[in-house]
């Protein structure tokens, strides 16, 4: 299969990014660590680099649509913000949900730290049999096999 880059990706444009001052809108970026549609680095950069923006990163998760997610750690800050509350003051590195019939997630590559950053410059694939740092969920009917 040949992948062709669309020509519109290179059209000249006069558009520019808006100024990032106090008038920049309040936003939250939700990013799953293993999202195949939006690379983690892009979501992390937007969530930590834009003015008046907070990042919620979901560790060991690959889905693209992270809201609603079904955990208080991800959904509650978003719902509070959408209902007129404050956006999270700092980055949230939230635990991903385990696969059905499991109680924990597993680290496919370098774990995220509390700032949702990979601890090393170039993340490495890790042993997928080792439970993730934010892996264990104590509720649910899952069983590890």
Give the low-confidence spans.
136-145
**Count of helices?**
2
Mean pLDDT: 82
Strand order of the largest sheet: 1-2-3
Count of β-strands: 3
Structural class, from secondary structure content? Answer: little secondary structure
The number of domains: 1
Terminal Cα separation, in Å?
37 Å
Shape: globular
How helix-rich are the residues, as a percent range? Answer: 10-25%
Please state roughly what percent of the residues sit in beta strands, choosing from under 5%, 5-15%, 15-25%, 25-35%, 35-45% or over 45%: 5-15%
Pfam family, one: Abhydrolase_4
GO molecular function: hydrolase activity
Protein name: Alpha/beta hydrolase
Keywords: Hydrolase
Topology of this protein?
Elements: E1 27-32, H1 40-49, E2 53-59, H2 72-82, E3 92-95
Parallel strand pairs: 1-2, 2-3
InterPro entries: Pept_S33_TAP-like_C
Pfam family, one: Abhydrolase_4
Keywords: Hydrolase
Overview of the structural elements:
InterPro entries: Pept_S33_TAP-like_C (IPR013595). This is Alpha/beta hydrolase. GO terms for molecular function: hydrolase activity. The protein is mostly loops. The chain has one domain. Helix content is about 15%, strand content about 10%. The chain contains two helices and three strands; from the N terminus they run E-H-E-H-E. A three-stranded parallel beta sheet has the order 1-2-3, with helices on both faces. Strand 1 (about 25-30), helix 1 (about 40-50) and strand 2 (about 55-60) form a beta-alpha-beta unit. The model is unreliable at about 135-145 (pLDDT under 50).
